[in-house]
Amino acid sequence: MARITTKQGLKEYILLRLGHPVIQVEIDSTEGGQLDKIIEETVQDYQELHGMEGSFLYHTSFLVSAGVAEYNLSGHDIEAVFDMDLGLGLYGINVLFSPEHILLYDEWVRKGNYPGGPGSRGTSNTGLVLSEYQTSMQYLKQIDVMFGKGYTGQWLNGPEILRILPPPKQCGIGMLAVYKRTAAEYLYNNRLVKKLCIARAKIQWGIHLTKYGVTLPDGITINGQDMMTQGLDAEEKWYDEIRKESPPNAFFVG
Predict the structure, then answer these.
(1) What's the rounded Cα separation, in Å, for the pair 159 and 21?
(2) pTM of the full predicted structure?
(3) 11, 40, 197, 214: which has the fewest C-beta neighbours closer than 10 Å?
(4) d(CA 83, CA 75)
């Protein structure tokens, strides 16, 4: 079976699975119609529910302006913000003159305390330099926690705005770790997306059939309520399958 890569291809697949062209499927399949809305809603649900195929972790930067609290990030397909780091003051995105770089440069370059280097500690004890460096890093981190400026980031999913409180007092560069939505065309051929679309199309078709009875040429009557019930049961099943298939959030310890 050919891979489905377009919305039109998915619409044709759904109608085929519902019985077209053998029977008349009573659902609007025109552009922007009911079937389009079903597909769009299902793709959006999959993007929000599935933590691996529906969205992916992405790192990006943005300009931070002094006195500005809200930043419009619409158009970037951001599902959620995972982490934020503001490049302000000594701890900016440029690490060439950061305290960490200066300490390492002093020990390894100026004093020559790299492995095999001409440093005062010789070549047999250079591991001590790294341990001293790590100790200094922990000390700097504690200083930053105690005396550094803390900010809170709020992601407003509706207007797609990032709010930073309190507003920064200086300009700089912010780094964001975000979850971006997978493009819809990469999800049209997904097994669960197709199953859920078919279920929701059955619900919509059943709603139409409840308005009047449909009798096929051989005398078989299609019951709208039965069609809706089948669709609702299938929708619950495949929606739950998407939630179960989504892997748990990854995290590191240590």
Answers:
(1) 42
(2) 0.62
(3) 40
(4) 19
> Please, how many CA atoms are within 13 Å of residue 194, restricted to the half-sphere of its CB?
21
The three-state secondary structure class of 133 is helix
Cβ contact 91:148 at 8 Å: yes
Residue 144 corresponds to which tokens in the numbers above? 């930053």
For 205-238, how does the pLDDT look when each residue is reduced to its tens digit (9 = 90+)? 999 888 766 565 666 666 788 889 999 999 999 9
Instruction: Provide the residue type at 102 as one letter.
Output: I
Q: What is the pLDDT of residues 157-175, one digit of tens each?
A: 889 999 999 998 888 888 8
DSSP state of 18: H
| E strand or H helix at 150 | none
How is the chain split into domains, by residue range?
Answer: 7-53+183-245, 55-181
Distance CA 11, CA 230 (A): 20
Distance CA 208, CA 69 (A): 49
